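Run log, item B.
One chain of 451 residues. Sequence copied directly from the ordering sheet:
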Amino acid sequence: MSRSGRRIALAGAATVAVAMGASDALLISGHAAQDDTQAANYSLFNGQVAAAADREQVFTSTNPGFDQGAVDNFYPLARVGVTTAGTSADASPADTGPFAQAVYAGLPAYPGYNGQQPQYVHAQDPGLHNPPSFSAGTATASASVTDASGTAAATYGAVGNTTTAPIGSPADGSDGGSARTTSYFDSALGFVTVGDSRVHHASFGGGMLVLDDVHVLVQVSTDGLGHFTKSVSVTVGDAYVNAGGTQVPVVIDQNGVTVAQQNAPFDQVQGVSDQLNAKLNQAGISVHTVAPALAQEGDNLHVDAEGVVVEVRQLDVGNVPVVGGVPQQWVRHTLGVVTMDNEAVNSPLQADLGTGTSTDLGSTESTIPSTTTTTSPILPVAPLAGAPAAAPSAPAATPAPRAATVPLTAVLTSQPLSTRWLLLLYLAWQALMIALAGALYLHRAALRSPR
């Protein structure tokens, strides 16, 4: 091959390689941009996501009727709801639970106070899409929505409970927590819901039990045809127990703590682990993990994911009275919480272009089973503001035939061409054009050069 021919071949190969590398990067990413217009392809969608870094519940033995605790707060709280009826997003660095909210709502209004706690940010559609965010030092909250998506995020500095910590010791609790939730439509993934919660550091029993970098991440997407792609990740960076002034690295599971094998001979791991759990129990501390729970009913997938659950009992300390005269109380910290419902039905409706009479295109009638979920959510889910109240149930009636619309699924018999392949074809065509231009330039340059 001549020198000019080799130049032409090299230029063409290099150009094609660059173009194909770019297309491979797009394929590896596998995530197209958010696309609210995809909502038109779904006759029903309901994405509810709530996340918190530290859920703090306080229980008392005097009133066991509080099955969720006399105090049930979330630090911080990020929650979104994206539905066919509208969208909403709420965020707060300190969700004070229903009791405190009722107290605040009962206070008389005065200039600058409207009955709402200032640390809450609420966005909704129809309504205010991008409300002002909240910020007070390390405590932040923000929320925004469109007509088919919602995002909420919040952070806090530290939260603690002094009634369960030993006298003279730092409060039990956590710091550096964050929560983020979002629900949206993606041209490649379908209807997507994501919940992310993180705790930077947590300490209990005056530093007897220490955990770092607890992270819970849940992502679910659906094509609206009953198929779900889901990812649930629960990780703990470091955990250790202070025993006799020595920090012992441990692994936490559903049964408590287990000493890391590199810190004890293999045949002594169980014995050392039992000793550590006994020391924690003497200090009124129990710790365990909870396996994620996933339940699908029809077109709905419900997910409950928790990181690490720590319960601290208030011990009898001589003649020191318990706070408030409560005979016994204990606090439960759930580090890393995400609860989610993802439901979508991909069956758009198309207007009948005929005379108003329903046209039979040969499709068969099918009954869509009920997708009502009976699982109770871990985190509070606020009702959509402005939504009409449900009407009383009435006897079932024979539905009248729908004259104005016909199912679009009776018209479409194949999936449309993916935009990803159109993009790849366009990049390949551009690569060939660039290669041709480069080859012509090198060829003309070779003709001009003296032989």
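Observations after the first pass:
- The first strand starts at residue 44 and ends at 60.
- Residues 82 and 223 are 16 Å apart (CA to CA).
Flagged for discussion on Thursday.
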